Amino acid sequence: MIFPHLNPDGPLTLEPITAAEATLELLRYSKNLKHQPRFGLDLVPRLLTQVQCHVLHRNDDLAAAADLVLDWN
Fold first, then answer.
1. How far is CA 7 from CA 13, 29, 44, in A?
2. Mean pLDDT of 8-13
3. Contact 21, 71 (CB under 8 A)
4. H-type helices in the chain, by residue range?
5. Which of 3, 8, 18, 36 is at 20 to 30 A from 27, Cα to Cα?
6. Which strand (E) or helix (H) includes residue 56?
7. pLDDT tens-digit readout, 32-50
8. Cα distance between residue 16 and residue 55, in whole Å
9. Whether pLDDT at 59 is above 70
10. Rounded Cα–Cα distance for residues 21 and 34 (Å)
């Protein structure tokens, strides 16, 4: 699972993150937390049990970011 973070003037990096950090990333975007909090909180750990999680710090060079992700695996 890759979480893109845009920084137009920053470096292009792909960094591993912990399951706890990935949980926080996913919960930031969860629409269910307001309407069905228990569902969102139960689902996120299940989503993360068998995946590697990374943050893609990317700049404006989208092609280079795509190459980095494709070459990573």
1. 11, 19, 26
2. 88
3. no
4. 19-28, 32-35, 37-48, 62-72
5. 8
6. strand 54-58
7. 666 666 666 677 777 787 8
8. 6
9. yes
10. 21
